[in-house]
Amino acid sequence: MHTESIESWQHPHVFLGSGHERNERKTWFVIVLTSAMMVGEIVGGMLFGSMALLADGLHMSTHAGALLIAALAYGFARRHARSSRFAFGTGKIGDLAAFTSAIVLAMIAVLIGYESVLRLISPSPIAFREAIPIACLGLMVNLASVWLLRDDDHTHRHHHEPHEHEPDHGHQHAHGHGRDLNLRAAYVHVMADAATSLLAIVGLSAGWLFGWIWMDAIVGIIGALVIANWSYGLIRAAGSVLLDVTPEPGLLNTIRETLETEGDRVSDLHLWQVGPGHYGAIVSLVTHQPKPPAQYKARLSGIETLAHVTVEIQACG
């Protein structure tokens, strides 16, 4: 068999998200914004004695590091997308980065909680007039970053609407569970920054107006709990992809219903995510009238998120 004919049967394993390069550029831009504001808040917190402001700055520095992980993951996945070293491509590099970012987020929550408890036990004077404007500026930068990193995948959905003959419920499933977790991790980090900045403003304002110096530490503890909750959700989502946890039943049922016709029965079905919006499937079929694998794959062609399908056929009787 000639080399050309073999290549015609081969296919690439590039399972990157549809907005991979766009999300990479946005992440680098937010890193610049975050780093600039981080320096301002840390210096301001040290000069004006605000735990909430200092905590926000320190926690922003760890977010800058986590965002750097996300940006580097985008670059690595893009450069090695066609490398034969990765059996199913580099689509999961972003999920690994997201999992790492979630761990960093959990550490940030612990750090803020610890420092806030210490400040609650031993309060110190705060320069409210100077600290509040810096916290407000930090919030504006955070909100700008949140807007930049928002998941705008829905603005591109009209390009991928299913045809009338396609199983629409499988398509809808993919939109809900094939998101770019690397982008989501970066988004959660800047959201945590925004929440901490907002709470810092609340704590500083309460301390300034009512003399409640302890409020600065209380909002730090509240912020730590909120961030810990976000971290837990991100760890679960990214961990599920890394461990090849089967997606929820919607897409599985669609595959079964599509294949089980004319007496054919699915005896074994494995479904996992190989990249944002891309799924791999291994299907074993039992039938009295075996057909070429290409015919079974053709039945599944309407489910566009199935990027890699392997079909095994067992003849019974």
Question: What does this entry look like structurally?
Answer:
Strand 1 and strand 2 form a beta hairpin. This protein has 317 residues and is mainly α. The protein contains ten helices and three strands; from the N terminus they run αααααααααββαβ. The chain has a three-stranded mixed beta sheet with strand order 1-2-3. The chain has two domains: 3-242, Up-down Bundle (Alpha-lytic protease prodomain-like); 249-315, Alpha-Beta Plaits.
What's the short version?
The protein is mainly α. The chain has helices at 3-7, 20-48, 51-79, 93-121, 128-148, 168-177, 181-210, 215-242, 249-259, 293-299, and strands at 265-275, 278-287, 306-315. It is 63% helix and 10% strand.
Number of DSSP E strands: 3
Q: Can you summarize the main beta sheet?
A: 3 strands, mixed
Overall spatial form: elongated
Biggest sheet strand line-up: 1-2-3
In helices, the fraction of residues equals 55-70%
Oligomer: single chain
CATH architecture of the largest domain: Up-down Bundle
CATH class membership of the largest domain? Mainly Alpha
- The percentage of residues in β strands lies in 5-15%
Name the structural class: mainly alpha
Q: Low-confidence parts, pLDDT < 50 over ≥5 residues?
A: 153-176
Write the layout of secondary structure elements.
Blueprint: H1 3-7, H2 20-48, H3 51-79, H4 93-121, H5 128-148, H6 168-177, H7 181-210, H8 215-242, H9 249-259, E1 265-275, E2 278-287, H10 293-299, E3 306-315
Parallel strand pairs: 2-3
Antiparallel strand pairs: 1-2
Helix pairs in contact: 2-3, 2-5, 3-4, 3-7, 4-7, 4-8, 5-7, 6-9, 7-8
